[in-house]
Amino acid sequence: MSNELAQKSIGELAPLIQSKQVSPVELTEQVLSNVELYDGEINAYISVQKEQALQAAAQAEQEIQSGNYRGALHGIPMALKDILYFKGEKATMGSSIHSEFVADFDATAVSKLKMAGVTFTGKLNMHEYAWGATTTNPHFGPCKNPWDLTKIPGGSSGGSGAAVASHMSIASLGTDTGGSIRIPASSCGIVGLKPTHGRISKYGCFPLAWSLDHIGPMTKTVYDAALLLELLSGYDPKDPTSIDQPAKNFSGLLESDAKELVIGIEEQYFFNNVDSQVDEQVRYVLKQLEDAGAVIKPVSIPSLKQAEFAELVTITTEASAVHHANLLKSPEKFGEDVRFLLEVGELMSGVDYVQSQQIRRKLDVEFAAAFESVDVLISPTLPFLVPPIGSQTVDINGQELSYLDEVIRFTGPGNLTGLPALSMPVGVRGGLPVGLQIMGPAFEEEKVLQAAALIEAMDLMKGHAPMLKK
Amino acid sequence: MAFDIHEILEKKGIIVPEHHQDMLKAQMAGFEELRQTVNQEQLKDFDMALTHIPGGEQK
User: Model's pTM, two decimal places?
Assistant: First the structure.
C-alpha cells in the first residue's frame, strides 16, 4: 500500500479532506498500515485501536460528504501518549500499577480533539509515569528511535516522537515536566511545543509534578503545532493551574520578517558544554538568521546556575508525593529507575523545596527582564546527540556524563518558569537529528512560532528522513 | 551517609533494595554539590510565589 498520504502534515491534509480529494478512511488505512509495517521494530504504540479507528474514519467521511466539515482536524488520524484519559478506555501511564486502570471521563484535551473530529488510532508508549527521558519502558518494552533503531527516542513522550517521525500518527500530544515534549521532538526530528503553563488544561492527565507539568503538540510542522495549540488553548475551571487568557489564532500569526526579530543568546548557561556538532548546527542557524536581518543580542540570566537544583528538587519532591502511597505499598511494581527516583524525592527537605520555589520566582523576574530587550531566546534543545538504548551516559566532546543530569539541562528552565518553549529539527549530524530550542515570553507563543516558521523556511531537513524499512 | 539515607527512608516505611543504597549515596552527594550553588543571601527577599488562591479556585 502506498503511504504517501500518511507522510503529509495536518496543514497539507486538511484542505484535501475538506475538498473530498482525500478520504479519511484511506488516510487512516495508510497510517494503520505503517503501524503494521514499522511498529514491530519501533514499539511506539502500547495499544492499537484498528477497528475503532476505521469506524471513526468512516463516520468522519460520512459527515464530510454530508457537508458537515468540522475543521482542520476532522478525519486526521492521531495516537496520543497513554497518560491522557479517554472515557471508558484504559490509561496505563506506561506502568504496571495502572495497567488495568479505566478512566471514567475524557481529559479536556481529548474532549477537544474528539469535538474537532480526530480519528484515534491508539495509545502511545512513554517512560513509566513520565518519570524519565529514555522511554526504555520495562512493562511495555523499549521504544526505539526511527532514525537509528539502536538509539533511544528520548522521553518521556518517546512513543509520540517516534510515531510522528515514522508516520504512524499524523501528529500527537506529549506531556512535558522537565522537557518530555522537547527532548523526544529533538531526538526524533519533529516539532514539539510546550506552551505557557496554564495555557492548555491538564485535567484528565495523570500528573508527574503538578507545578511543572504541561501538555503540548508534537507535529511534523510548525503550522501543525500552531493549529493544535489554538484548538487546545483555553481556560478550564477543572484544572487549578489553568489561566484565563484569550486563545489566539496562532496558525494565522506565523508570518514575520527576520529583520524585525531580536534573538537573545544566553551563552554562559545555554551554550555551556555542548556537543560540538550540535553547537555548530545551532550557530549555523543563528548566522543564517543574522544574515537575513535578525539581531542577535547577548543576555544574562544569572540565576540559571541554580536552575538544576530547583528543577531536581521540585520534580523529585512532587513526583514522590504523587506516588508516595504506592512506593510504601508495592515498590516492586515500579521499574528500577522510577523506583530509584521516587526514593530520591523522599530525601529532599522542606527547606530545599521552598528555596527551589524562591529560585523559580527569581528566574521568572530575570527571564521577564531579558524579554524586555529580545523577542525570543535560542539555544540547543539537548547538549548531545541521543545515546544508545540502555546507556546511562552520554558523550559530550569525549567526556562521559550522566544522561539524567544532562538531558534536562536546557529544557528544565522552561518548566521552572512556565515560559513557552519549542524544539524543532535544524539538520542531521551523525545520522541523528539536531534540535534547536526557542523560548519566548509568557502567553506570547506566537513569537516562538514566528521564529520557528522563519527557521523552518530554511529547509534544513530537506533530503533527510528516518531510514524506515520499505 | 548510606546508613543515614537508609534510616530516613526506613523510618518512612520505604523498603530500599540493597543495591540502591550506594546509588542513593552517590546521587545525594551530587545533589549536595548542587545545593552549594544556592546563594542564600540572594534568596532572602524572594517570595516563593505559590499559586494558592485564597477562597479556592477561580470559578
Answer: 0.97
